[in-house]
Structures are given as structure tokens and as C-alpha cells.
Amino acid sequence: METKVSPPYRTVITLQDLEFGGTQRYAVHLLNNLNKDLFKLELWVLRGGADMLPMAQSSGVPVTYLSRGRWVTPRSLWRFFRKLKDQKPDVLYTMTAVPNIWGRIFAAVATNSTVISSWRGKQEQQFESFLWRFSDRLICNANALKAHVIKRHGVDPKRVAVAPNGVDINFFSPDRSRLDPHPTVVYIGRLVKEKDPLTLIEAFSLLRELVPDTRLIMIGQGYLRAKVQRKIATSGVKDHIQLISGANDVRPFLRQGWLLVLPSISEGFPQVIIEAMACGLPVVATAVGGAPEIIEHGVNGLLVQPRSPELLAQSMASLLSDLEMRNSMGRMAREIVTQRFSLQNVVKMTEQIILGAIAEKQAAK
Asked: Where in the chain is the domain with CATH 3.40.50.2000?
């Protein structure tokens, strides 16, 4: 009979990379805020990409790269398997698609770890209909995603928990002294199909006709970057769009902006929305994924249907043109984040989910 483990539980968090991204920020939040008396943490990264490495290292948690290459290779996967087999952590928390696939398979073969897996978007590429059985818990960051994974992939509802994203409301706070004197729209997100940045550029061209002084700041990187650059170059408004690869600290841009825009066609629970709300920004977003669980239309932001540059432009224009509405929504945004999405509350919720999965697994031995 195996000896039951006790705290601090040796806990390995795995990521595909440390490039800029919402899941990476979430992982770094956990590194910095999970109770170290309960969890002895490590971070394993399967391939290169170090945008968020300084933030991860600032937590004091050991960070191990299994490869520094651009891709996850068979060699890095072999190293992943060997480390799991040799170290046999008490808890393996898999995040992003490749760790969610191979981490669960390797853990089933080589360890008796309690396996926690993240579900932070409609990642149909991670074979959830089969692999959920290798997870003691799936943690979704939105109720919409929980419903999706149960319905589409047949996951046992008892194995699915919801812990929304959290934000440090002291770190992300309003600073009106930084507000740009010109109407400024901010987009922060990956330049990928799911985020639909090309529609945003179309919408911005229409917005300039409604609010001529408007500027757009786009912060992000991804496989659509070249297409985004070409779209900007031919848009007729290229002199009013600033494209930035990424930033470890997005607060200066959020404080500069008049609103945040997120034109996604698919989402989980967008971290950037609650970061913007904590800074007192109203948000214009598409009504997909977990966004309607954060934004109450007409109260702290506006929701529109995806793939509609006209509606997106009109919604942004209505906010940019109405100071009273913009300020009111900004105040409500900050209040809602403080009440529902503070990092302290969300981390505590996550701890309880992991501890419950550990206790359940030990009781079954």
C-alpha cells in the first residue's frame, strides 16, 4: 500500500512555452500566489519562448526548460517523460495543448500523481473526449467552457471545476493621469485566428469615420502577424495604428486607453478583460466564451456579435463619444472585478479544487 502524501505537495506546473499569453500569465500568477506551505512548486516548459520568464523567475520557483527550440520535439517530450518518471510529483498541473496531451498520458504510465488539467478555451486539438479520463480534475475558467466540455466531450461533470481568472487589484489599478488626450482604443491579445485581429482593423477603419481622432494600439504576436501588418499597410489608417510585439507590463497601455476591445470569435475567460476592468476601462468585446460572464452589457461594457466590423465600430464609437457613459462603465468595471475576480479569491478557489482532488485520489487508494 502506497504512503499517502502530505503537504507541501510537490507540484509541477507545465507549459508549452513562456511566450506572452493569457494562460502563461495565469500560470505565473499561480507561481507567485499559491500557498507555499501547501504546494512546493516547479515550472517545466517544453520549448523555447521567454517573454514571461522574468516574471516566472521572480516568484522564486524553479523553472526548467526541456527544450530551447522553436518547437516541441520528440527529444523534449522524452525529457518530459523521464523527469516525470524519475521525480513522480504529487501533483501535475498541465496547461496549454501539448502538455495537456502528453502530460496526462505520461502521468498515467509513469506516476501516481494527482493530475489537474486546464481547459481555458475550446481546444479541440487536445483529444479531450479520450484524455479527460486521465485527469483527476479539469479546471475551466468559465461556466460556458464547463458546459461545453461536458456536452461535447462527455466528461464526467464531477471531474470538472470552475475557477475564473483572477487579477491583482492593487497591481492593476486606475491612473487617470496617464490617459491619452486623444481617443485611444487598446487591443491586447495574440495575433491568431481565434482573436480575429483582422476584423478589428476593418472596424477601426470604420471607427475613424465616426470618431476621426481615434488611435489604436495593438499589442500581441502570433502566426497572423504578417497578415496583420499587410492589412494595416493597406487599410488607409496605418498612421493611426501602433503595433507592438508584446509587453511584460501592460498597465501603461491600459491606463493610456479609453477602452479595451476584444473581437474574438472564440474565447475562454479572457484575462485581459479583467485586467482592463481593474484599471477602470470599459470593454467592447464579442459575446463568445466567458466574456458574457464578465461583461454585463450596458453596465461595465458592450457586447457585440463576432465577425461584425460595423457593430464593433459603432459600439466603440458610442463609448468614445460619451464621457459620462464611459466613466460610469469604467467605475462599474473596477467594482465588479474587486467583488468577483480578485486574485486572492481565485487562488484560494484553485487551492481548494486541487486539495479536493488530492484527497479524493488518496481516499480511493
From this structure: 9-166+342-363, 176-340
How confident is the model at residue 235, as a pLDDT? Answer: 96
Q: Is the pTM of this model over 0.70?
A: yes
Q: Three-state SS for 183?
A: coil
Which residues are CB-contacts of 249 (< 8 A; sequence separation ≥ 6)?
Answer: none
Query: Given this structure, which CATH class describes domain 176-340?
Result: alpha beta
Q: Are the C-beta atoms of 8 and 89 separated by less than 8 Å?
A: no
What phi and psi, each to the nearest 5 degrees, are found at residue 288? Answer: -130, 155
Q: Over the stretch 117-175, which tens digit does the pLDDT of each residue have?
A: 998 877 667 899 999 999 999 999 999 999 999 999 999 999 999 999 899 999 999 99
Per-residue CA distances from 64 to 16, 76, 93, 100 (Å): 12, 11, 15, 17
Mean pLDDT of 347-351: 95
Residues 350/30, Cβ–Cβ less than 8 Å:
yes
The class (CATH top level) of 9-166+342-363 is alpha beta
Q: State the first-to-last Cα distance of the chain, in angstroms, to the nearest integer.
A: 8
CA dihedral 227, 145, 76, 88 (to 10 degrees): 160
DSSP letters, 101-164, are: IIIHHHHHHH--PEEEEEE-S--GGG-HHHHGGG-SEEEESSHHHHHHHHHHH---GGGEEE--
3-state DSSP assignment of residue 10? strand
